[in-house]
Amino acid sequence: MNQKPGAAYLVVQYVTAARVPLAAGAGLLLYLARPFSWLAAVVVVLLGVCELTDIFDGLLARRLGTSSRFGELFDPYCDSMSRLIIFFGLASKGLCPLWLFLLLALRDVSVGYLRLMYILSGRRAGARLSGKIKAWAQGLGAILLAALYAFADIRYAAAGAQGFAYWSPLAVVTLVALVTLWSLLDYADAARRPWRAEGGGHA
Fold this sequence. Notes:
77% helix; Four Helix Bundle (Hemerythrin (Met), subunit A); mainly alpha
């Protein structure tokens, strides 16, 4: 007879899963919000709470002793879903380029399959350091872009402007893109190592 999961285990999973509806709510409010509005400020708060859940679920899992193989896969899944939702919202609002959303999606789909290669090679599928740094870069990047919309009116800045409202989102987008690409390459390299060692892959 299967043992039912304990309350502590379920609490951790609920905290992890909360990122998806929080991101969906932030995306919906962002669609409705105007620059310099209280609604845009609420989006920033929701994104901040969303990122806090990413910190607290790991801390809770270690504190309560509820770490599991399921959690190792469920946590990055919720990360991917929440960040894809919010970056799609940012892109649809013109606050980041559509190619950045596509890069995030390609990275997450690719890493999902690379995690399967991890499992097939007998290794755990936990996050690598590059994945953790990527998560922070994307999370903070989304908050900064939303904050710039709420407080600096970047969408309606003149196209030729060279001030804060022009360079700040460009810097955020560039950083998020570079860290995301680095994380993809890092996971790809790590997944290939056991196959290269067995002579089953191409150099």
